[in-house]
């Protein structure tokens, strides 16, 4: 059998599972669960793994499930990851599989990701006697909220046996079904939440000279913070400083003695990340002091930047071109300033994260993620399954 025939055979197996996968995906879609609350989702995954005869572990990272396929022959270990949490959004679609849970919806495609991993598991498990190595199946909670990837890593999922390569995907409503998006190097930004508190002195509005006005102070701080990107960051680098919430004062005729501001910082380079945060702290403290008050900055460290390993991207590229044709593989030029906690897996092992086209204008699948009208063209499921299987086989090989 030629390599081309083998690739066709794997895709044919995925296509043959289409109805099974659609039923699974639509069930997940009707019963979405938020991060660390994926109990029903976990139960369904367990039930399906039991039906396949795939062993698994569940006593890790809240609702995570880690399946394990042991090949007949010794070799490397490859991990495949799917996030499985939903978003706190009302489902606005008029479809039979619309969410049955008010205020919760799979608006980012994690139901499709989980289904694709189950489909890949089914094919790989059926060919385990030919595998030279092992496959770990990471069903991850809380990608949208608490960073379930980091919790899974802390629980030891990358060890025993040690993971040699890891692959993940994300459906992309910007790309038509049948296309794959690849990014070498940096693909997603890091994020940090910041809370700025300014302290002054309250007094009657008729006697401003007797107080320290934190409203005025906040205005100066906000203006100064916007100079960080334009004057402290190399124009060839990327950084975003956003203040999305401000609160202060009690009455219109009283000088406010306290203002709180909450925002985010997003960067692509770790050195730029620390430099921006350092400048934020200095500006807040020094502007506040210059105006007779004081300030403090509380940083909550968010996701790290997602940086693909180029050799693994090349591997996915070769598989995707053979499976779909070179014209269907698109190289993404610019990284996204959105975040993705698959980044933590890539800090532990070589791997690649890529985009799976799911847009279909004829079917009305045209809406962006995190939108109440978001949906995926289910024809992307079989493509995702076949490509993930091929990614595993390129690392492990077969007898």
TrEMBL record:
<keyword id="KW-0464">Manganese</keyword>
<feature type="binding site">
    <location>
        <position position="108"/>
    </location>
    <ligand>
        <name>Mn(2+)</name>
    </ligand>
</feature>
<keyword id="KW-0378">Hydrolase</keyword>
<feature type="binding site">
    <location>
        <position position="370"/>
    </location>
    <ligand>
        <name>Mn(2+)</name>
    </ligand>
</feature>
<dbReference type="GO" id="GO:0047980">
    <property type="term" value="F:hippurate hydrolase activity"/>
</dbReference>
<dbReference type="InterPro" id="IPR036264">
    <property type="entry name" value="Bact_exopeptidase_dim_dom"/>
</dbReference>
<feature type="binding site">
    <location>
        <position position="144"/>
    </location>
    <ligand>
        <name>Mn(2+)</name>
    </ligand>
</feature>
<dbReference type="Pfam" id="PF01546">
    <property type="entry name" value="Peptidase_M20"/>
</dbReference>
<comment type="similarity">
    <text>Belongs to the peptidase M20 family.</text>
</comment>
<protein>
    <submittedName>
        <fullName>Amidohydrolase</fullName>
        <ecNumber>3.5.1.32</ecNumber>
    </submittedName>
</protein>
<feature type="domain" description="Peptidase M20 dimerisation">
    <location>
        <begin position="192"/>
        <end position="288"/>
    </location>
</feature>
<dbReference type="InterPro" id="IPR011650">
    <property type="entry name" value="Peptidase_M20_dimer"/>
</dbReference>
<feature type="binding site">
    <location>
        <position position="170"/>
    </location>
    <ligand>
        <name>Mn(2+)</name>
    </ligand>
</feature>
<dbReference type="InterPro" id="IPR002933">
    <property type="entry name" value="Peptidase_M20"/>
</dbReference>
<keyword id="KW-0479">Metal-binding</keyword>
<dbReference type="Pfam" id="PF07687">
    <property type="entry name" value="M20_dimer"/>
</dbReference>
<dbReference type="InterPro" id="IPR017439">
    <property type="entry name" value="Amidohydrolase"/>
</dbReference>
<feature type="binding site">
    <location>
        <position position="110"/>
    </location>
    <ligand>
        <name>Mn(2+)</name>
    </ligand>
</feature>
<dbReference type="GO" id="GO:0046872">
    <property type="term" value="F:metal ion binding"/>
</dbReference>
